[in-house]
Amino acid sequence: MLHVVLYQPLRLITQTSLTSMCFKLMLSRPVAFAQIWKSWFSSHSLVGNKNIILMGPPGAGKTTVGRIVGQKLDCPVIDIDDDVLETTWNMSVSEKLQDVGNEQFLEEEGKALLKFSASGSVISLTGSNPMHSAGMQHMKKNGIVVYLDVPTTVIMSRLKSMKVDRIVGQSPGISLKDILQFRKQFYKRWYDIRVLCGGDIAAEVVAEKVLDAVKRYQNSELETFISTRSSRSARSMEEDSCKYFSDVVTEGLAPDGGLFVPERGLPEFTAGEWQSLIEATYIERAQVILERCIHPADIPASKLAEIIGTAYGENFTCSKIAPVRHLAGNQFLLELFHGPTASFKDFALQMVPHIFAYCIPRSCNYLVLVATSGDTGSAVLDGFSRLHDTDKQRIAVMNFFPEDGVSPIQKSQMIGCQKENAWSVGVKSDFDFCQTAIKQIFTNSDYTGFLTVEYGTALAAANSINWARLLPQIVYHASAYLDLVHQDIIPFGSPVDVCIPTGNFGNILAALYAKMMGIPIRKCICASNENNVLTDFVRTGVYDLRGRKLIPTFSPAVDILKSSNLERYLHLIANEDGQLVTQLYNQLENQGHFQLRKDLLEKLQQDLVAGWCSEEDCLAAIHSVYSTTGYILDTHTAVAKVVADRLQDRTCPIIISSTAHYSKCAPAILRALRIAEIKQNPLSQLHLLSSYSPLPPVHWGLLETLKKKGNEDHEVCAADMGMLMSRIETLIQNHFM
User: Fold this and answer.
1) DSSP helix/strand/coil, 347
2) Taking a C-beta distance cutoff of 8 angstroms, is the pair 484, 653 a contact?
3) How confident is the model at residue 431 (pLDDT cuts 50, 70, 90)?
4) Which residues form the Threonine synthase N-terminal domain (predicted)?
């Protein structure tokens, strides 16, 4: 009898009666008891006294999957429909619904949940349980809620085969599809873990995915981060100093000067999981992808959803967030400029400030330092200025930019984005000096320690050296591919190339990460302007800064010689050999160059090809595209377009990252379009461009920023480390003290 009790979905056994039966079995059949105890202990070690609660729409397979999970864990299985509702009501669910109607049914169903309790069980909810708030709060107290996320089209097909044409809550005139979409908001409110379930996936496979997801949820200590410069032997000796996502967001740069990367790599999605996202919105795709990259112990799914909704809900001018537009032939543009500051940096920097505010301890103030070659500064300033007032009191941001190395509009925008917790400082040098200075400040333990002790303030980084900056960029590369599939341009699984204007290597690294996670990207084309150190490196394996001087160009965001995120990629292809990475970067620092081994160069060239574009060709491309299509490329996108034309083989679609709105480089655009009169005032330049009724229109957010008064007010500092550190200390005193 006990064997039946343990495996059947019984919920009425009391703790006393179960203990009594176990005691009798132990006396009469000790071997059988030992086997059952071992099985119970195995399941108990996974869930303890917690329940695994399966949630999802009708037709998601909750009952079947629940039984399989229960069998694998040797624990009780409870189906709310069969074992609770029908037992409580003494009638079938359909009879109850017909008897009381939709609204009263939901209330009666919720009351039944409130009276129910269990522990160490697998529980399959009804499709409508999540619509009763009090009932779900009661269930979550002792359970891990697992959302079986099945695409609506798949659910519709399953329900049709089951001859189900109406579900709870569906009023006359409302379609089945509409009510299924309506219910999603309730599922998203309650789950702890999401399991993606494609169309033809077997229940046995879903059950394994549920168990894997629960194991991940229970074991946050497995998702640690390491420095690109740490050796394996050093890591084994430093197990007590593990870094988690919250730590790397807060710290930015590793103590040894390296960059943080996940020790176990990024999660891989199956083809079926990616296909389940084809119909999803951008925000839904972001939620799914980032949940797999950020452990819920660092940011729970519900909080992550709130952050993503805040970042992309109202701050972007296009409802698609990152639309893909056909340009010509096999070329498509991924428009990444619809955010508030008109560049791709908004995708990370509308989100990272909220992630940062959630992850940092409340006991300390934080000053975020950032160096920019053009677009990052305004995006950081705008993002951190949108924090809640209480967070702005404890988090400030200081942006360093090359005073004479950005466009007039970019400078006006950075100055115009200054707020009560966000400031810009022009530095009389180039971007490489600004970036190197920040790295040196972070690794100066005497200085950072002094700030902490004297002012209770810690420093943090918001450049793409911060791991959290990269994750939102992975999303838009994956989403672009899924959009091409959704538009029937390609079937899922067909390859695409991507071409990305590249300076600090973060954007193209995110595309490489998307490829690792299962997006069928064939080649990543690295597009440089006349500062073409990366082009030479990809072609030869030699990274050589000797004798190179930064050349100011029409595409200032990629006017970079030291590409920080390249270090993460080298660490990846070197099989996490931190000693080799340290050796390469020490050589770069001390001798101005390094060379990859032949085997590593071959690995690199399997992923990357590279080319560069002259200033003349950049302007010519802008003019040519406008003349043939009416579309205006910005200068950075024009660089990528020129390189794509040269390097693509036209055997598959190529997605060109359009990383900024042309409004940000208006003088160059006016010159490219051969407009004779170019006024010096940035606002006048935008009004002139707008008079041509361009496609896309002039960026509204940029116009609004430039209209603000006081755009000339900002600090300017000499290229001197002591001066920069003094400015930082003064800001801390003024804001936090």
Assistant:
1) helix
2) yes
3) confident
4) 240-312
